[in-house]
Amino acid sequence: LRLARAAGAIKPSVNARVGALLARPHATNAVATPAYSELSSVPLYQQEKKIERFTPGDENRRPFAYLVIGSARFAYMAWTRVAVLKVISTMSASADVLALASVEVDVSSIPVGQNVTIKWRGKPVFIRHRTAAEIAEAGAVNISELRHQETDAQRAQKPNFLIMLGVCTHLGCVPLGNAGDYNGWFCPCHGSHYDISGRIRKGPAPLNLEVPPYKFTSDSTVLIG
């Protein structure tokens, strides 16, 4: 009976202590929960990622944004101006370019058997007033034997005047007149020989001396270009 009474007295005391322990929050498992009023004042994106960000429309970012936008507009306007000027410059040729596009020459002042050299588009142009013997010699050549086959009539609109560019077709040197093995033109750079019609006869040049576009506006005047 005494044991039973002692056990009955101990049981309530143990239960009370266990209840007290369960009611006390454990120090290691305690989580501080912020109040709702504190969370409601913080934007949602800051609650989720917990990093410091500028809020939309922050005044500290406006000068940088204005700088970027202004620089982009300035660059675009500058590029547009350059593009427009380039188009205009290509469409309207200058007076110097128009002057060099064609040149008029009075060939009546060239003595028979002599050459003159003029400048056209930055290149030398040979004009020779040929003799009757030279015309006959040029016409008697068998074109089948030529490297670049052209008749003299194809190269000279008027037999007594031969007009061609003074630029060797090998590497662009200027040939010498009244020289070479064919009494025409000789290129001293690499030894190309041209006849009295400006046709390549010997040496490394692959083509005849080029004939520029021209027309006689009168018996004594020729327009080149």
Automatic annotation (TrEMBL):
The EC number on file is 7.1.1.8
User: Which branch of life, at top level?
Assistant: Eukaryota
Enzyme class, UniProt record, top EC level: translocase
Any idea where the Rieske domain is? Answer: 128-223
Q: Which UniProt keywords apply?
A: 2Fe-2S, Disulfide bond, Electron transport, Iron, Iron-sulfur, Membrane, Metal-binding, Mitochondrion, Oxidoreductase, Respiratory chain, Transmembrane, Transmembrane helix, Transport
Q: Which cofactor does it need?
A: [2Fe-2S] cluster
Annotated GO CC locations? mitochondrial inner membrane
A molecular function (GO) held by this record is: quinol-cytochrome-c reductase activity
Where in the cell is the protein located? Membrane; Mitochondrion inner membrane
Catalytic reaction annotation:
a quinol + 2 Fe(III)-[cytochrome c](out) = a quinone + 2 Fe(II)-[cytochrome c](out) + 2 H(+)(out)
Query: What Pfam families is this protein classified in?
Result: Rieske, UCR_TM
In what way does this protein cross or attach to the membrane? Single-pass membrane protein
The UniProt entry's sequence similarity note says: Belongs to the Rieske iron-sulfur protein family.
The family database entries (PANTHER family) matched by this protein are listed as: CYTOCHROME B-C1 COMPLEX SUBUNIT RIESKE, MITOCHONDRIAL
Task: Give the protein's recorded name.
Answer: Cytochrome b-c1 complex subunit Rieske, mitochondrial
* Species of the source: Cyanophora paradoxa
Gene encoding it?
risp
